[in-house]
Design brief:
The structure is a single chain. By secondary structure, the protein is an alpha/beta fold. About 30% of the residues lie in helices and about 20% in strands. It has a seven-stranded mixed beta sheet with strand order 1-11-10-9-2-8-3, with helices on one face. A two-stranded antiparallel sheet has the order 4-7. The chain has a two-stranded antiparallel ribbon with strand order 5-6. The longest helix is centred in the last third of the chain and has 17 residues.
Length: about 220
């Protein structure tokens, strides 16, 4: 991996990909819960929304590209059983070039909230555990995996959410282990992303995950390569 001071080069690379879902370039960002997916997605979305380098900044800058958080798609009853709902509400409309109408889940009220509209933007980031599952991969233009060890990710997630969600995390960890055991994402990732002291490092290409398929998805250590 080579250190990167800016995500602009990765943003340009992703924006240049051919569409994968109708007119949309769907970019998946997967990794363990607590691995930093949401933060990375927000920063990548911002980089994708910046004007082209060398051109003057417009008076009304382009907003960051949309990010679909799988936390809003999952529910208490369906931590990972949401793929059919996502297909019907989001994937099929976008593939046809139509706006998607979907309802995010409210984890406090334990019910789905008001409907939202997701336009078929040129680039759409979809982030969350399971963003690289086999049902989604055919629709992705690129799959990125957050290269943060499982144990470290889960500790960070528990610290973030507090002791009051300890029971939820106990159940989540069992569910995530079962999910990645039967439907791993990392072996199919096109790009591995790792947080560094200066931002993010990443590597892309056919050799990005070669020989290290189990090291993060099924174990707790980073690959040595």
């Amino acid at each position: 991996m080579e250190p990167q001071q800016s995500l602009e080069s990765l943003a340009r690379e992703l924006a240049a990909l051919p569409p994968s879902l109708g007119p949309v370039r769907l970019i998946g960002i997967d990794g363990h819960a607590g691995s930093g997916k949401s933060t990375f997605a927000a920063r990548l979305a911002e980089a994708l929304g910046r004007p082209t380098l060398g051109r003057p900044r417009p008076a009304h800058p382009t907003p960051a590209v949309p990010v679909l958080h799988l936390d809003d798609v999952a529910s208490h009853a369906e931590l990972f059983g949401w793929e059919e709902r996502l297909r019907a509400q989001v994937l099929e409309p976008l593939a046809a070039g139509r706006p998607a109408h979907w309802a995010p889940y409210d984890w406090v009220e334990r019910r789905f909230g008001p409907e939202r509209v997701l336009e078929p933007a040129p680039v759409l980031l979809i982030e969350g555990v399971g963003a690289g599952r086999r049902a989604l991969r055919p629709h992705l233009a690129r799959l990125l995996w957050m290269e943060t060890p499982r144990a470290q990710s889960w500790i960070r997630g528990r610290n973030r959410d507090g002791r009051e969600l300890s029971d939820f995390w106990d159940g989540w960890e069992r569910a995530e282990r079962a999910h990645f055991s039967s439907d791993p994402s990392r072996p199919f990732a096109d790009t591995l992303v790792r947080q560094s002291g200066t931002g993010y490092e990443w590597s892309s290409g056919t050799g990005a995950t070669a020989g290290t398929a189990a090291s993060v998805t099924e174990g707790d250590e980073l690959p040595r390569a």
